[in-house]
Design goal:
It is built from twelve helices and eight strands. It is globular. By secondary structure, the protein is an alpha/beta fold. It binds zinc ion. The site of zinc ion has 8 residues, from helix 4 and helix 5.
């Protein structure tokens, strides 16, 4: 991956994701989209996670990623693309998620692909209980729609975090919102410039507005999705600052999974914070929780971008300043594993 100065417009696919997030949640409810996500136009490298051949006992058309079995169900008639293409897309996204997490987060998952009348690509997704994902494909879904899709990755990431009480939904939605572009950038299906440009534009929605309380107490769209994403971004950066960039949010989430906290389980936020802290040998998550969830702690985004070396240009694109004090942290968050260190 490149770390030099380069620019690009804010991608339509990311703007599209923001609009999707504007209209709803998905942990238990449908997540509507406004149109087909656009294909990422660069770095279309194949995922590096190794595929495991299906065994004879696996259902036909299923996907095995490591020890996890993903079965695929079709509803609404034949999908808009051949089933092998759909299966390859599901496999690719599962492998990307598995690479970030050190394995697919649940032992099995049923993905229902629903052919939906009307135009559009990957238009909708839901996740339930770490067992089921439903995803709707419009009639104009193309290979490019699948290549640039973020919805399925977002839903799969929900399977990698325990269910929480409703007032903490920001923590679940924020994690999927924050990690989804990272997972794709690390595998080269989305450029680092696009990810940081997107965040530089959107993270501001997550800051507390006048009268807002902590994330546990103010449940607007901005605070739920982007407040949650901002919480996890700050957590990622602070974990890396506290550990000399040796540990990040991925280590905390893997710690939660190792303790059994996937989408099939119900946890308290106290347990989440304590397991994250234990996994990273820090107090970062519990301290941030007190600051941003229980109290309306604000984040100085201009200072954060400056330290990370994310320089916004007038046209909305970003360039990177590799001399910034936390430039190495920025690189470690979104670079592919082979080039991050
Ligand atoms: Zn979601």
């Amino acid at each position: 991956m490149r770390h030099g100065r380069s620019t690009g417009p804010i991608p339509r696919l990311l703007l599209s994701s923001a609009l999707v997030l504007l209209f709803g949640g998905c942990a238990k409810r449908a997540e509507p989209a406004t149109g087909a996500p656009q294909s990422a136009d660069d770095d279309n490298a194949a995922p590096t996670a190794t595929a495991t051949p299906e065994t004879r006992a696996d259902p036909p058309g299923s996907v095995r990623v490591g020890r996890s079995l993903l079965t695929i169900v079709y509803e609404g008639g034949e999908p808009p693309l051949p089933r092998e293409v759909i299966r390859d897309w599901i496999r690719r996204d599962a492998e990307m998620v598995a690479e970030y997490l050190g394995g697919f987060p649940v032992p099995s998952l049923e993905v229902t692909v629903i052919s939906r009348p009307g135009r559009g690509g990957v238009v909708f997704g839901t996740h339930d209980d770490g067992k089921w994902i439903r995803v709707w494909l419009g009639t104009t879904t193309t290979q490019a729609s699948l290549d640039g899709d973020w919805v399925l990755v977002h839903e799969m990431l929900h399977a990698a975090f325990p269910d929480l009480d409703a007032e903490h939904r920001w923590m679940q939605e924020g994690l999927s919102t924050y990690l989804e572009p990272i997972v794709r950038a690390r595998q080269g299906t989305l450029s680092e410039q696009r990810v940081w440009g997107f965040w530089a534009e959107k993270m501001d929605y997550g800051r507390p507005r006048a009268g807002d309380r902590g994330l546990d107490h103010t449940h607007t769209w901005g605070r739920t999705y982007w407040g949650g994403a901002l919480f996890w971004l700050v957590a990622d950066v602070e974990l890396r600052r506290a550990t000399g960039n040796r540990q990040g949010l991925g280590d905390a989430v893997r710690g939660v999974l190792k303790a059994g906290g996937n989408g099939r389980e119900y946890w308290s936020t106290e347990r989440v914070a304590s397991v994250c802290d234990e996994a990273t040998g820090t107090k970062v998550i519990s301290r941030l929780y007190a600051e941003m969830a229980e109290a309306p702690g604000d984040v100085d985004l201009d200072a954060l971008w400056r330290r990370l070396g994310v320089v916004r240009r007038a046209d909305g694109s970003v360039e990177f300043d590799d001399d910034a004090p936390d430039a190495a942290i920025r690189r470690a968050i979104t670079a592919s594993p082979a080039t991050a260190r």
